[in-house]
Amino acid sequence: MVTVRITGTTFFRGAPAALSGLLSGYAALAVAELVAAAVRPEAGPVTAVGGAAIDRTPAGVKDWAIRNFGTNDKFVLQLGIVIVLGLPAMALGLLALRHRRLGAAGVPAFGVVGAGAAMSRPDATGLVDALPSLVGALAGAVLLYVLIGRLTAQPSPASEPGAEAGWDRRGFLVAAGAAALASTGAGALGRGLSTSRGQDALASRAAVTLPGPASPAAAVPRGAALRIPGISPFVTPNRTFYRVDTALVVPKVDAMRWRLRIHGKGVTRPRTLTFQNLLERELIERDITLTCVSNEVGGPYVGNARWIGVRLADVLRDAGVKPPSKGGPADQLVARSVDGMTLGTPVEAVMDGRDAMLAVGMNGEPLPLDHGFPVRMLVPGLYGYVSACKWIEDIELTTFDDFDPYWVKRDWAREAPVKTQSRIDTPKPFARPKPGTVMVAGVAWAQRRGIDRVEVRVDDGPWKQADLAAEATTDTWRQWSFPWEATPGGHTLTVRATDRTGRPQTDKRARPIPDGASGWHSVVVTVD
Ligand SMILES: Nc1nc2c(c(=O)[nH]1)N[C@H]1C(S)=C(S)[C@@H](COP(=O)(O)O)O[C@H]1N2
Ligand SMILES: [Mo]
Q1: How far is CA 29 from the centre of its chain?
Q2: Taking Cα atoms as reference points, which of 325, 408, 312 lies closest to residue 360?
Q3: Which residue(s) pair with 363 in the sheet?
Q4: Residue whose CA is closest, atom 10 of ligand 1?
Q5: What angle do CA 176, 182, 183 make, to 5 degrees?
Q6: Ligand 1 pocket, 243 CB below 6 A?
Q7: How far apart are the CA of 252 and the centre of ligand 1, in A?
Q8: CA neighbours within 13 Å on the CB side: how many for 353?
Q9: Cα of 178 to ligand 2 centre, how many Å?
Q10: What global pTM score does this model have?
């Protein structure tokens, strides 16, 4: 009789105990996010663990995640973290039912993981980064202790005479309900705080008026933008411009408080520039195609925009910097962003006359937050990870021997000029066009060198010249088209480009790591 009762009760209490664990985890996260919002949003446990996971993810998996989830990769990661936390939280609840102190003490163990992750981030600033996770975990532990206390407390004999569940059901429900409410409130408050911080950044962006460029972009020739359905437009709108970065939370930088420090080897006149300082300089406007090294053959991580900014070489010269070819001691420029990302660029490339810039505008507006507001770097001809630092705040002149930036530490190449590539935008893979003339069209790029020729092959037939759109500059991609007389059946369309140096795009397949994918893009279609 007694045994039966205990077993039944234990089972009966299992569900509320697991719920207590979940609630405690929820409260811990909510309190942690609130503390983070007050001290440092990036130090919140979900962001920190997610960021630390990104830092430690092998390049192959990261590529896979970007490929399969696209820009949603970060949402999927965060969702995964929350789900993965749920199970142990419930287990701790059950453990606490038998060993109240031990179960409650398990919660801070997770806090330590969160704190460790936050402190390991490249942008960590010290112990404050540990604070959100630790305070949150403490709150969670206390809550679990209290809730389990309600669960194991005996009801007053008068309240529920003969009640089989020997626990203070009312006390538990009240405590659990209050905890859920308070946690939701804390979470909402935290989110509100973070949002209001973001408002300063947004307000400062809204207040920016970009001055006209002293050196406007060359007019885009009339024939540079073909009107073919399905082809990538010559100018990629900001809204659809690809985004690749490690930031789980997009940095929200107030342009009025923004500073750029320039220092390091061979910097005879170290500088700290304000946003206003930049706007007061001569601005250049250029059309530049930006490419990500992670882009697979035929992939989407390439876009062309009209950028406006300050010539980086001028700023460096003002600081006394000389390129190695003029006897300068630094061969690597390391750009650092507000979120601790580091990117290394050859000083020689930045100062060789190309339009390397500190960009403040993109397609006629201040940089979107996602694309680096208020200031980012751009160097035509180099993949983004070795040149295009978003949310930049520091430029250090150093050497390739002395410092490996973020991606180089993760086995990507130190130097990475963009490889010649071409892509079929239309028809799409597995399209079913009708027999007759089918417009095959797409884009090709070889920044700095320029595209000289694009050829298309149907199945194993001969290479045939595609029609090239007019070239805007050698730093922009070039559209091409090819009217194909399609015959019924399955066909493979393949494209290859040749750059202005006369070198055809290699057919040798290479993965993106370490210095960019190579190979020809093919699309299989069925004509019927
Ligand atoms: N701060 C910061 N800057 C960054 C990155 C990043 O992760 N953090 N990613 C780089 C990479 S890999 C690329 S390809 C470009 C992409 O720029 P976009 O997102 O504006 O297209 O930004 C570069 N600048
Ligand atoms: Mo990239």
Answers
A1: 23
A2: 312
A3: none
A4: 385
A5: 90
A6: yes
A7: 15
A8: 2
A9: 46
A10: 0.83
Residue whose Cα lies nearest atom 15 of ligand 1: it is 384
Pairing relationship of beta strands 521-527 and 489-499 according to DSSP bridges: antiparallel
Q: Are 501 and 514 in contact (CB under 8 A)?
A: no
Per the structure block, which two tokens stand in for 391? 């949310």
DSSP string, 135-155: HHHHHHHHHHHHHHHHHHSPP
Ligand 2 centroid – CA 46 distance (Å): 24
What single letter denotes the amino acid at residue 445? W
Asked whether 62 lines ligand 1 (CB < 6 A), one says no
Identify residue 303 by its one-letter amino acid code: G
Q: Which of 63, 244, 339 to mutate to test the pocket of ligand 1 (most atoms within 8 A of CB)?
A: 244
Burial (0-12, 13-18, 19+ Cβ within 10 Å), 158: exposed
**pLDDT of the chain, 528 residues: tens digit per residue:** 333 344 445 557 888 999 999 999 999 999 999 999 888 888 888 888 888 888 887 766 776 676 666 667 777 887 887 788 888 999 999 999 999 999 999 999 889 989 999 998 887 878 889 999 999 999 999 999 999 988 887 655 544 444 445 578 888 889 899 999 999 999 899 888 878 878 889 999 999 999 999 999 999 999 999 999 999 999 999 999 999 998 888 899 999 999 999 999 999 999 999 999 999 999 999 999 999 999 999 999 999 999 999 999 999 999 999 999 999 999 999 999 999 999 999 999 999 999 999 999 999 999 999 999 999 999 999 999 999 999 999 999 999 999 999 999 999 999 999 999 999 999 999 999 999 999 999 999 999 999 999 999 999 999 999 999 999 999 999 999 999 999 999 999 999 999 999 999 999 999 999 999 999 999 999 999
183 CB under 6 A from ligand 1? Answer: no
- The Å distance, Cα 385 to ligand 1 centre, comes to 6
Instruction: For ligand 1, atom 9, name the residue with the nearest CA.
Output: 245
**CA distance between the termini of the chain:** 77
Whole-number Å distance between alpha carbons of 405 and 393: 15
226, 425, 449, 453, 474 from 470: Cα distances, Å: 9, 18, 15, 12, 11
